[in-house]
Design goal:
Blueprint: H1 3-28, H2 53-56, E1 63-69, H3 73-89, E2 91-94, E3 97-100, E4 107-111, H4 113-124, H5 128-137, H6 141-150, H7 155-159, H8 165-177, H9 183-189, E5 193-200, E6 206-208, H10 211-214, H11 226-233, E7 243-246, H12 258-266, H13 272-282, E8 292-297, H14 309-314, E9 338-345, H15 363-399, E10 405-412, H16 419-426, H17 436-452, H18 454-462
Parallel strand pairs: 1-4, 1-9, 4-5, 9-10
Antiparallel strand pairs: 2-3, 5-6, 5-8, 7-8
Helix pairs in contact: 3-4, 3-17, 4-11, 8-11, 12-13
Amino acid sequence: MSRLKKVLVRAGIAIAALVVVVTVATLFVEPAYRNEPLKTWDPEAGYRHTFSWDQYVQGSDDTLFAVAFSGGGTRAAAFGYGVLEELRDTKIVIDGQPRRLLDAVDFVTGVSGGSFTAAYYSLFGDRIFEDFEDRFLKRNVQRELIFEFANPTNWIRLLSARFNRTDLAAEFFDREIFNGGTFGDIERAGGPKAVINATDISTGGPFFFVQDQFDFICSDLTSFPVGRAVAASAAVPLVFPPVTLRNYGGTCGFRMPAWLKESLESRRASSVRKWFNARILASYLDSSVRRYIHLVDGGISDNLSLRSPLGDAKASESEDSLEGHGIGNPAFGGNVRRIVLIIVNAQTQAEVSWGLVDVAPSVPGVLAAITNSQIDRYSVETLELLMSRVRLWERRAAEVGAPLHWYLIEVSFLTMPDAEERNYLNHLPTSLNLDPEDVDRLRESARRLVRQSTEFQKLRIELSKPIQSSIQ
């Protein structure tokens, strides 16, 4: 036998052996986690984000207070952590009693890197100020994940078509950061709830880890690991494969809501956004058509963690409807008269000097620029949409004799007045590893931006004043 033939034979044997190993791994390696089916739909049960406004309110009975954390890896997590520290150390007086402003927060939202901070605070409360730095912020999570991927004991699992790097990362987050906590544990903790945001790669729309979203796929979120939801929210395409959920839609007795049917039948007559997002939600209802849902980085669809297909589909632009989901339209007939939203935006906008050279940008450079520019533009549109809704809410509230006071506090690299500090922040990488000095500087920058906010200073004063409703 010639030397070439021997080489080809050996190569064939190696390929055959690899095929056998992959086949065996696929057949015998269990999926990392399978979301549980919902036996019977109960619109009042589960980890919900759409119950009455009165149930949100913890610090004041007339204020709805939310904090939204953007994406950006450890950079975003540290920036958001600094905001929580400042809220903890800010004192207010409610009904004659001194309180921390942090205690007035009703819920938090998070995407990608920001989801680590949101989920940890929601799951563990004040414990975040004791160990979050060691467990995540100042830990080289990126290096530890690489070690997990390189560990020979994980190779067989990684060869399976039903187990991938994101599954391994989810197990790591679950074990090393969130202590196996589930959304049911957050519910039982009784503190501010967290809404973790991912992106459905099939539709390009946001996917939310709340029972209201899981109703559509007839799945029970209560037992779902928080670490796995965070892994989905931070699954950067190409770096991490999608997190896969099983769709059980159509098996639990879930009924299409009237507002969804109305949105589908509108056929763009009233709102293109409303109609489009209604179609996304309706696509989950038949599991024979969509058996699986694949989730990636939530920053792709909403890097500010403010959008909601649930809210967009349900919200009506007519003056007759006051219904809404999430940070949707307030119930003006209730007691909420103040809405506070702190947007923590750690998106970088480093300057690009391509206009100074005649060499074509590299492929990675082009991909990065396209991604960042799209995220930036989408974030601008998100803020514009939010402000248009705020103006509508204020007008409606005034018409029914219940003035609504709105406080929008944006903590962003863009709002940093110090040019040198802004340049420093904009050049921090999007990764799961930062130097401890960078983490501390991010925290202090966030705290300083909160303190310097005119709207924040106004809020501190106004929160101590009860708002009397004029509705009888």
